Amino acid sequence: MAEAKPVERPLSPHLQVYRPQLTSITSILTRITGNALIVAALLIVWWLVAAALGPEQFATADAVITSWFGDIVMALSLWAIWYHYLAGLRHLYFDAGKGLDIPTAEKLGWVLIFGSVILTVITLWLI
To answer: What is the CATH number of the domain that holds 69?
Structure first.
């Protein structure tokens, strides 16, 4: 009986071998923005609770939110809202069985990235 020759191949793709694809990057960013929005919501809740507790607590929370750090966090949160919203629309489109081919999925990924940036800039300009 002949001996079986073992096939030498990796058990799973390794990060050094695997080339990240736009669709996987946008999927990971959707999860990151969702979690970041939870942190931003907690910051806003802290600000509102501090307003209810009294002027000293509110002054502290307001100083954080209106500082340069707070401005950056709120601007990035606004981008995360638009990104997460557009990713949800893309997901609904995929759930309908449309746009699942690779070229369309990649185009939708770029629309998601650039669309969220453009909508964020427009919203900041209007505010």
So the answer is: 1.20.1300.10
Q: Kindly state whether residue 7 falls inside one of the protein's structural domains.
A: no
Q: 5 pLDDT band (50/70/90 cuts)?
A: confident
Length of the chain (residues): 127
What pTM value is reported for the model? 0.82
Q: Is 93 a member of any domain?
A: yes
Buried-exposed string 44-71: b where 16+ CB fall within 10 A, e elsewhere: eeebeebeeeeeeebeebeeebeeeebe
- Cβ contacts of residue 104 below 8 Å, gap of 6+? 98
Please, is 23 exposed, middle or buried when counting C-beta atoms within 10 Å of its C-beta (0-12, 13-18, 19+)? middle
Q: Which residues contact 84 (CB under 8 A, 6 or more apart)?
A: 30, 33, 34, 37
Task: Please tell me the total count of domains within the chain.
Answer: 1
The reply to whether 17 falls in a domain is no
Average pLDDT, the chain: 91
Distance CA 1, CA 42 (A): 67
Containing structural domain, residue 82: 22-126
